[in-house]
Amino acid sequence: MARNPRVVSGTGIYHVMMRGINRQNIFEDTDDYIRFREILLQMVNPTDKNRQPLPARCTFYAYCLMTNHVHLLIRENAESIGEVIKRIGISYAKHYNRKYQHFGHLFQDRYKSEPVNDAAYFFTLLRYIHQNPVAAGITKNVNDYEWSSWNEYERASSCIPIICNVSHVFARMPLAELKELVNEPLPKTTMILDYDSGDINRSDEEVKEFLSVSFGLRQPSDIQLYSRERRNDIIRAAKLYGASIRQLVRLTGISFSIIRTA
């Protein structure tokens, strides 16, 4: 099946998601997170072979490094989004493969992206990206997570490299207001591209039939009657089948964070 062409952003800004192939971990320890952040910094402060500065390849407004995936809020500059993501992926894969003696692909071949064409969605994504660790149950608060760009906005530590163009955001919203906005949970009905939804899109009826035939569920919500282990096995199978996270939330009544981390 031919892949759908990427939707071009009128502003040059995109929400990009990179994930490990077969959902494998791409970060194993602190040094891995640090290395990935160094690569992002190289994208905004590139140099030539003589260490002379070059134009920024892109601009970042937000990032969040999770165990097996990455979220970026990025704008094209000297290079296209595709070229920048390729650079990031190759640079980090070299580090990972050398360190862990890993062979083969590290990232899923086709990264996901969506255009950001207005300020309202831009700030929705700022919230979404920084709330990822909270939604996944890793931390209770946005500012507790070490590997997102929120620390750049709060300047919690002088040793944190400034990768994102925070001044662009502050020109539109002061820190106090932004902090309040980012810490306010997004409504569950907010529609944002799922990093876990594959290239296959299944209808509700297809998902219901899959759950019925494969697991004997009379209705998707019956999954709540199973043990945690069995429930998570079913959720993982449904996601591999092509069901999206938000689709499973709607059909089963189980929370977004549980389905996402299953």
How would you characterize the overall build of this protein?
- There is one protein chain.
- This protein has 262 residues and is of the alpha+beta class.
- Helix content is 42%, strand content 10%.
- It is built from eleven helices and four strands; from the N terminus they run βαββαβααααααααα.
- A four-stranded antiparallel beta sheet has the order 2-3-1-4, sandwiched between helices.
- Strand 2 and strand 3 (69-76) form a beta hairpin.
- Helix 1 (30-44) runs antiparallel to helix 2.
- The mean pLDDT is 88.
Based on the model shown, name its key terms.
single chain, 262 residues, alpha+beta, four-stranded antiparallel β-sheet, 4 strands, 42% helix, 10% strand, globular
Q: Average pLDDT value?
A: 88
Computed structural class: alpha+beta
The major sheet is characterized as: 4 strands, antiparallel
The oligomeric state of the chains shown is single chain
List the helices and strands in order: EHEEHEHHHHHHHHH
Work out the number of β strands: 4
Distance between the termini: 28 Å
SS strand fraction:
5-15%
Give the helix proportion (percent range).
Answer: 40-55%
* Low confidence ranges: none
- Gross geometry: globular
Strand order within the widest beta sheet? 2-3-1-4
**C-alpha Rg (nearest Å):** 19 Å
Number of helices: 11
